[in-house]
Amino acid sequence: SEYIQKERADSIRRIIIGFFVSAVLVVIMFAGIVPAELSRYVMFVIATPTVLYLGYPIFKSAFAGLRTGSLNMDFMYALGIGVSYIASVLGTFNIFLSGEFIFYETSVMLASFLMLGRFLEGGAKRRTNDAVKKLISLKPKTALLKTDTGDADDYTTVPADSLKSGDIVMIKPGSIVPADAVIVSGERYADQSSVTGEPMPVKKAVGDGVIGGTINTGGAAVVRVTKAGSESLLSQIIRLVEETQRQKPHVQRIADTAVSYFIPAVLLIATVSACVWYFLLNATPLFAATVFISVVVVACPCALGLATPTAVAVGIGRGAELGILIKNGEVIEDADKIRCIAFDKTGTLTVGKPKVTKVIPFNGDDGSSVLALAAGIEAMSEHPIAAAVSDEAGRVGVKVPQVTDFRSHAGRGASGTVDDRGYAVGNAAFVRSFGVAVPDNVIAELKEYESDGSTTVILARTDLTDKETVGAADDANAVSAAGACGCVIAGIVISDVIKPDAKETIAAVKADGYAAALITGDGEGAAKAVASALGIEEKNVSFGVLPTEKASAVDKYQKNYGKVLFAGDGINDAPAMAKADIALAVSNGTEIALDSADVVLMNDRVCDIRGFLLLSKKIMGRIRLNLFWAFFYNICLIPVAAGILYPFFG
Fold it and tell me: Does residue 344 have an active-site annotation?
């Protein structure tokens, strides 16, 4: 924004002026270009407006804190700058202090380095927003909106911000999707890399959702807007990052609290040290004043004030670049205490979409011809299993035959005619309803797959000639007298496929020392099969769990292991997310549960869960290191400034 740019330009100007004036003051002090008797006055004239200019924001914040009774970081900064400057003024005019107390360059340098540190911190926060800014820049200014004239091809250009849910919009090849939407006609490939990180364009067909800000790399498509303006995914991400930046992690609040005690402690040490030297050790007033000034200036906590916010800002920015959006800053610290990761199954560890995993011919036909025949029967069905069969036929590239007399039997299967022969696809009871005998060996073989949590369907030839009988055959008993008509052709196994990186990720988190658990509403067979394939111990598998019972499952693992991170799809896992110590939503970027989760993964990768934990550890490690050196510096140099070495070295 214009305000941010002005603020950044002002900071740069202050930094340049500060270091330039510091260099000039150093040259005047040591180069002898100004007569000695005049140099202190020249430095006073040069340093005074510079200190006032650089220190104004610092002193303003310090006095604001004093009015509210808060000793903040800026108070200590102001104290260090102010004491060194006032001492220099007193030394300049020989008021109590001599000309040896000329510290103008110190006061200017302190202010300059503080401005530089804040500029770098602001730069880290700006980099945090880079990923979001790239998304914002992808928003088109205009959109092609369908008019109400009745002409199917009549579209008009309107501002993209004026779109609302339900609007019909045309997306031309190479253009940017103006809002979250669903395709109503046409197919396209979407470049979603800027949002979800997917490197390859994704094919989108009728009914598929598209994300605002993605690029249409294929043909033209007509879409219906589902979310626009502030409700769009991009707007949600922007709000998410802004909320995160406003929050402070617990460790930062600890540092702020420490400073509130640190400041009076420093003032006490400075005062006591000066009094000890003057009253007990018979030092001169000048020496006692030197001790006081030295302690206050050395203790200026620049490093302490920047240690945590800089590390957090950089870490969150890096997370955003990787597609890891941290909603709540406190989870950075909480992640360091996690002992167990509980996974939802469907959509988290598995793809969440049925897929044909095996075709079993029973009559000698090859798998391709069987798959083609089944896909033909299922082509006009809207059932997810039918879609899986059709998708597999498309993937393999088989030629799907034309089907006539198609009928969908709700919840049981589908039937139709190919080349004057009747066929049915469905469960065993459905196939039997056509008078087809299903051999015991077929049932036994298919049950082996069902025990692992897969779903099976049977493709059978029916050959019933009386269509009215076929229509009535929803009850197996209705045709029991008809005898065995037709035969079983093949069995098809459909499974929810485990994500490619799930097993490797589970092994990695276990090697890192975390316990892995599975919480699912699936039956025992499916749950234990997935857990076994992924290396999750059977004792850590909770199956048949209703959404309302998932919180209890999380509570069980909390009692067994301690802090628990729950990773789910963020939609029907709200109770578990509310109970977990950290709630993480694994999403493909379109159904992101920003309200439920503390952390949202824009990429639908299981490995990013471990990536979040590693990133959090890295951030906390850097914060601890920064705080250590900040306190170590003060612990070592404050005693030196107080004069502890003076009796030994003078």
Answer: yes
Find the helix or strand (DSSP H, E) in which 160 lies. Answer: none
The amino acid at residue 412 is: R
**Residue among 236, 192, 323, 331 at smallest CA distance from 587:** 323
By C-alpha distance, which of 82, 129, 131, 140 is closest to 108? 82
Q: What is the 3-state secondary structure (H, E, C) of 248-284?
A: CCHHHHHHHHHHHHHHHHHHHHHHHHHHHHHHHCCCC
Q: Which residue has the higher pLDDT, 477 or 647?
A: 647
The second-level CATH assignment, the architecture, of 137-239 is Distorted Sandwich (2.70)
Identify residue 615 by its one-letter amino acid code: L
Residue 349 CB neighbour total at 10 angstroms: 28
Domain at 362-497, CATH from 3.40.1110.10, 3.40.30.10, 3.90.226.10, 3.40.630.30: 3.40.1110.10
Strand 515-519 versus strand 487-498 pairing type: unpaired
Tens-place pLDDT, residues 379-422 = 888 677 888 899 999 888 999 999 988 888 766 789 999 988 99
- The C-alpha atoms of residue 475 and residue 472 are separated, in whole angstroms, by 7
Query: In degrees to the nearest 10, what's the CA dihedral of 309, 313, 315, 320?
Result: 160
The residues, ordered by sequence, that sit 6+ positions from 524 with a Cβ below 8 Å of its Cβ are 543, 544
Query: Rounded to two decimals, what is the model's pTM?
Result: 0.60
Buried b (16+ CB within 10 A) or exposed e, 426-449: bbbebbbbbbbebeeebeeebeeb
Residue boundaries of the structural domains of the chain: 1-128, 137-239, 330-350+500-606, 362-497
Longest dimension (CA), the chain: 124
Q: How many residues are given for the chain?
A: 650
In 3D space, the residue among 195, 176, 175, 177 whose CA is nearest the CA of residue 134 turns out to be 195
Q: How many CB atoms lie within 10 A of CB 417?
A: 18
Are 449 and 358 spatial neighbours (Cβ–Cβ below 8 Å)? Answer: yes
| Mean pLDDT calculated for residue range 190-211 | 68
Q: How does residue 589 score in pLDDT terms, banded at 50, 70 and 90? A: very low
DSSP-derived pairing of the beta strands 515-519 and 541-542:
parallel
Q: Which of 87, 20, 77 is nearest to 50 (CA)?
A: 20
| Three-state DSSP state, 78 | helix
Q: Given its phi and psi angles, is residue 296 left (phi above 0), alpha (psi -120 to 50 degrees) or beta?
A: alpha
Nearest Cα neighbor of 429 from 467, 475, 482, 469 is 475
What residues are paired with 413 via a beta bridge? 409, 426
Partners of 491 in the beta sheet? 360, 458
Determine the topology of domain 330-350+500-606 in CATH. Answer: Rossmann fold (3.40.50)
As given in the structure block, the two tokens for residue 120 are 């770098």
Nearest to residue 632, comparing CAs of 263, 252, 304?
304
CA gap 135, 486 in Å, rounded: 58
Instruction: Select the highest-mean-pLDDT range: 281-290, 510-519, 598-607.
Output: 510-519
Catalytic site residue from 74, 334, 344, 496? 344
The number of beta carbons lying within 10 Å of the beta carbon of residue 282 is 8
Cβ neighbours of residue 82 closer than 8 Å, sequence gap 6 or more: 55, 59, 107
